[in-house]
Write a sequence for this structure.
């Protein structure tokens, strides 16, 4: 049982930049370059900064582990009608089609020492924010996750 969400209206771009900054050393150590493409439209969402950071951090960690020899992490945000999307795309090997339906299941892991809870936790946190995470296998060779969260802009 999670504590209640402590939501604040935040610009998702600022939130992501802050988290990427925390991962700077990890990216450098793993020879991972970052490309960001942030929407210039209003990308305010209501989120619990701590829990959202944990959810996003779990996905970033997976991307880092998927690129042991380095690579590129592309992070983009978009305003989509009544929601904001955030995509995280890596240049790792991607997720096997047979594994794709299972990746959000508790204790499913393709890693030798993986607990299989990172994506499960991320998925639960984003659902608690009335959002969703999807695996997008079609537009990339690597792994690509898309978070969608309700926008708080123009809702008055």
């Amino acid at each position: 049982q999670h504590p209640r969400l402590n939501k604040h209206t935040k610009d998702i771009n600022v939130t992501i930049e802050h988290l990427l900054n925390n991962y700077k050393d990890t990216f450098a150590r793993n020879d991972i370059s970052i490309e960001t493409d942030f929407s210039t439209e209003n990308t305010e969402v209501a989120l619990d900064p701590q829990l959202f950071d944990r959810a996003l951090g779990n996905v970033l960690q997976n991307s880092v582990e998927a690129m042991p020899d380095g690579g590129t992490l592309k992070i983009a945000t978009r305003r989509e009608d009544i929601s904001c999307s955030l995509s995280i795309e890596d240049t790792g090997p991607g997720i096997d089609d047979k594994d794709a339906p299972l990746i959000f299941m508790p204790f499913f892991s393709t890693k030798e020492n993986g607990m299989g809870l990172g994506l499960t936790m991320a998925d639960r946190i984003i659902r608690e924010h009335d959002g969703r995470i999807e695996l997008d296998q079609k537009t990339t060779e690597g792994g690509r996750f898309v978070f969608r969260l309700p926008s708080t802009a123009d809702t008055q």
